[in-house]
Amino acid sequence: MSRSLTQHFKDLHGQLVILIGSAIRLLGGEAGLFVVANEAFDPQSSEEYTVYQINEAAVGSLLEHIQRGSLPTPARPFVVERLPSSLLDELDLFADFIGPDTDPESVTSQARSGQRLDSSNPGQRRQTQEYERCSLILHDQSGLVGMLHYLRPTESSSCLENDEIRFALFRAQLAASMRFALKAQSLVREQERLAAIFQYSTDGILTVDHAFRIIDFNPAMERLTGWRESEVLGRFYYDVLRPKDRQGNDLGLENSPILQAFAGKPVVNREIQITARDGQRFSVSVSASCVHSARGEPMNGILTVRDITREREQEEQRSMFISVISHELQTPIAIIKGYASTLARADASFDRETLRARLLAIEEEADRLNKLVGNLLYASRIEAGGLHMEIAPLDLEPLIQGVVRRFQARSPDLDIKVQLPPNLPLVMADRDRIEEVLENLLDNALKYSPRQRTVTVSCSTVGDEVIVSVSDQGMGISLRDQERLFQRFQRINHPSTSGRPGAGLGLYICRAIIEAHGGRIWVESALHQGSTFSFSLPRKEKAQLPMVVF
């Protein structure tokens, strides 16, 4: 669309140059320019003039001369002034400043060789004759159109100048022709701007005719729905979008946004659901309006569609955050308050073991609160891009052995197997952060493997990376849960995990840490068959390629 409009604009510009050139020739001129009254046509346009047979580089000097001299007015519509020889010489420096029959190189070479200039040749005659600048104001009933400035030899004149009535009629006809041509040019520019908005808008836009058949379908709409414009043109728009309300019920044609716009009720930011080509439904915000004819009859409908799926996901995350945090804060606070209230009772006495057990419970719940708050602060730093790493060469074997020893001391019934290859290469990593990742993965394996409490930690070298894996024999993770497992506040949706503590931030933090190292983290799992969480870290030294002898 925009390419055809650009070509149309070039055609109009060519016609405008022909019109100006014809007028200049009729007036006895040989070159000139038309200065447009832009406020009457296109205030945003930077093109203030149209030239005829004048080099663009010479226009600035000519316009300065015109501004310093006399200008025509409605009371004095025609002005003639002599063109200074200095300006004429400056104009002659340019290749094709006046007339199509000028060969400046031949003129210059003849002058240098002392040859006599042929007065019958117009190009040579301009070197010896004086020129004058003529200015003509053009206006009509609508106001000023512009000014026509042209150059002609001083002895030249037009027969129109000698007849005031004919000259006035000529000016009126030229003004009407110029206004029509410039108005057409302005309309094409406006069409180009609208076409660019339609083409590059991030919101989907479709237009329909009075029968609700699609007549325009922009690229953003194609990306939203999966339909190509060529596939939907002429189709009933309701059949293409299959709109539904927020609850997923069919909207019905009588409640469709475009029909309401045709009925004189513009729709602004109404939330509905539309269906993509593959059957997927998603939430959008739509605005609809109607274009009426001069007689007030509805001609076209315009529907603007904005995808708000991400906004809805963010709202769900906020709701989930409030729900999870409220639950995770209330539980330890309730336990701490309960034990503290019991211990503070004046009428109760406790033996040493009971007192110690309850104080340990308070300490554990306080640690749980501290971890939760720490994870929340950690997540906020990740979102703000404030995750700081101290990267250095790191030997993974002692780090893994140390973490495993701590876990086995804390849970003696947990069987952790370590499988490390000999000569494991060093990696470039932050020791504390990688230790935190490994502890989180082992903690999850322990938490979600209630029956089979055997966990395996293994390492392998693949290319320029070292892969660390933590495998359990627990309940496994569904494919649906795997897709969102590393997002904030996401937890496995399973009855056996509903009572387990956690805010759904651990794996999100693990992913941020590993990605900050330039590595990857992923999960391989199937329901009731256990899970393997793996992450990669870059080697300190690149792997050497094997030597191939031919």
SSE blueprint:
Layout: H1 2-26, E1 31-36, E2 49-52, H2 56-68, E3 78-82, H3 85-92, H4 104-113, H5 122-125, E4 131-140, E5 143-153, H6 164-200, E6 204-208, E7 214-217, H7 219-225, H8 229-232, H9 237-241, H10 257-262, E8 267-275, E9 281-292, E10 298-307, H11 309-344, H12 352-383, E11 392-394, H13 396-410, E12 415-419, E13 427-429, H14 431-447, E14 454-462, E15 465-471, H15 479-483, H16 506-516, E16 521-525, E17 531-538
Parallel strand pairs: 12-14
Antiparallel strand pairs: 1-2, 1-5, 3-4, 4-5, 6-7, 6-10, 8-9, 9-10, 11-13, 14-15, 15-17, 16-17
Helix pairs in contact: 1-6, 11-12, 12-16, 13-14, 14-16
Distance between the termini: 58 Å
CATH class of the domain at 389-538: Alpha Beta
Across the major sheet, the strand order is 2-1-5-4-3
The CATH homologous superfamily of the domain at 389-538 is named Histidine kinase-like ATPase, C-terminal domain
What form results from the Cα inertia axes?
Answer: elongated
Task: Supply Rg.
Answer: 41 Å
The count of helical stretches stands at 16
Biggest β-sheet: count, sense, barrel?
5 strands, antiparallel
Overall strand count = 17
Instruction: Summarize the amount of helix as a percent range.
Output: 40-55%
Which consecutive residue ranges, at least 5 long each, have pLDDT under 50? Answer: 93-126
What is the CATH topology descriptor of the domain at 389-538?
Answer: Heat Shock Protein 90
